[in-house]
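Need VanZ family protein's 3D structure for a figure. Predict it.
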Amino acid sequence: MITTVLVEHPWLSPTALLVLVVLGPFVGAWLSVRPRLAWAATALSLVPVAALALVPVDRELFSRCEVAWTLPTPGRVELAANVVLLVAPALLAAVASRRPALAVLAAGLLSAAIETLQALVPALGRSCSTDDWLSNTVGAVIGGLLGWLALTLARTRVRRP
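Structure prediction for VanZ family protein:
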């Protein structure tokens, strides 16, 4: 269902990514002095991740896991959406923890755990893919970089008289 929406509206993922890139550092800088709120936002940003990756779907699986290494592009709508999926959680976790590299690592491991769960629980009706993990990890790196930028902006604001 979500893939159908993305195919019909291919501008959704790039637009969401653009909004995150433009607004994310400023929102992150604002949240940097509000760690509890930043952690709450991180948790809230994981709800769509869980819903999109773990809610069972009714379909017949032809294969459980696919091993492929396709880089995401705007033309590959599902892979582009997988990039966007972990940008916000990684950005928010980077700001909340003040450790962007750790947030990127955690998001990459979360993606690997999701793909493993999809492989081990065929009742979900979801197939695992290394492409999904790669796209999610690219999104996590983008989110980590945005988190680093947000923390840098926050430090710059504090230094100004």
